[in-house]
Write a structure and sequence with these properties.
single chain, alpha/beta, Isopropylmalate Dehydrogenase, 2 domains, 10-stranded mixed β-sheet, 12 strands, globular
Length: 354
């Protein structure tokens, strides 16, 4: 069996963490009898500097022809003054739109050995196991019209019925495989688009009588994630709210460097760490590769139909952390830590031994 993987290292620490994840995929392929073909392409700032575009047509075509896409990270402050359509982030938005990726899955769970690395008390985060289902191609990030004018600027938050229905089904289906609870997050006390969102989600819920549905305003949800994160199973929300809440949930687990994500839809799926490009630590070999390597686990489940290998990878990561290996971001004060490459080596070795 031959598998084609598009690698998009991107900017900052992206190439460093993608390198470790690609090496992991190679190990998994060798052990499973798979032939994995890696094809690398440019995106974000790296693409801007080489081609003048944040998403070259050749990159999108390569991704469309692949079985899965693994992305590192994009962006750097030096490009923040560019026109909006030229910024690195536009490359990622264009990729999501070009691949039809409307559902972003962001799991946030605590490894027991890392409870002390969370910004909250260990007893508060000890039972965190949350899946955030974020709508990815609608809302303020894609709505039209949008403009910056001399005396004002504006964006449009808009959702169509089919967009809400399909992301709601993703959340309800996921809840059926988990603990059977969906919390839909909106701002229906203020926004008409949220009132519509809630109405459609309630209609979809009628087809899932076995799943419990409740609703929270986004500000209350943000508070509850800090107050009692263990109450959540699946959080369903729109694009902007999901972007913010998933980063908040990431910090509950100890570090943004721990959280993977999968973006699914009608085309080739995209897998990437939740964290950004972290240009302040790029090239120093201290980035945490676990989020990117865990994203490989999601790829194994959702794109490559290799659930046993995904389970083995989960066990390998857990074992390495339990044995005390830490990158700098998850090390407590005075605790020794290892480099990006060393963490990658340990996880690959643990996978091989599993």
């Amino acid at each position: 069996m031959s598998i084609r993987i598009a690698l998009l290292p991107g900017d900052g620490i992206g190439p460093e963490v993608v390198r470790e994840a690609a090496a992991l995929l190679q190990v998994i392929g060798e052990q499973s009898g798979l032939v994995i073909e890696f094809r690398e392409a440019l995106i974000g700032g790296a693409a801007l500097e080489a081609t003048g575009e944040p998403l070259p047509a050749a990159t999108l075509a390569l991704c469309q022809e692949s079985d899965a896409v693994l992305l590192g990270a994009i962006g750097h402050p030096k490009w923040d003054t560019l026109p909006p359509e030229k910024r690195p982030e536009r490359g990622l938005l264009g990729l999501r739109g070009g691949l039809g990726l409307y559902a972003n899955l962001r799991p946030a769970r605590i490894f027991s050995s890392l409870a002390g690395a969370s910004s909250l008390k260990a007893e508060v985060v000890s039972n965190i196991d949350i899946l955030i289902v974020r709508e990815l191609t609608g809302g303020l990030y894609f709505g039209q019209p949008r403009a910056i004018e001399a005396e004002r600027a504006y964006n449009t938050m808009i959702y169509h019925r089919h967009e809400v229905e399909r992301i709601a089904r993703v959340a309800f289906d996921a809840a059926r495989r988990r603990r059977g609870r969906v919390t839909s997050v909106d701002k229906a006390n203020v926004l008409e688009v949220s009132q519509f969102w809630r109405k459609v989600v309630l209609e979809v819920a009628q087809g899932y009588p076995d799943v419990h549905l409740d609703h929270l305003y986004v500000d209350n949800c943000a508070m509850q994630l800090v107050r009692n994160p263990g109450q959540f199973d699946v959080i369903l929300t729109e694009n902007l709210f999901g972007d913010i809440l998933s980063d908040e949930a990431a910090m509950l687990t100890g570090s943004l460097g721990m959280l993977p994500s999968a973006s699914l839809g009608s085309g080739t799926a995209l897998y990437e760490p939740v964290h950004g490009s972290a240009p302040d630590i790029a090239g120093q070999g201290i980035a945490n590769p676990i989020a990117t390597m865990a994203s490989v686990g999601m790829m194994l489940r959702h794109s490559l139909n290799l659930p046993k290998e995904a389970d083995a990878l989960d066990r390998a990561i857990s074992r390495v952390l339990k044995d005390g290996a830490r990158t700098r971001d998850i090390a407590t004060t005075g605790e020794p830590w290892i480099t990006t490459a060393e963490m990658g080596d340990k996880i690959r070795a643990a996978y091989t031994e599993s």
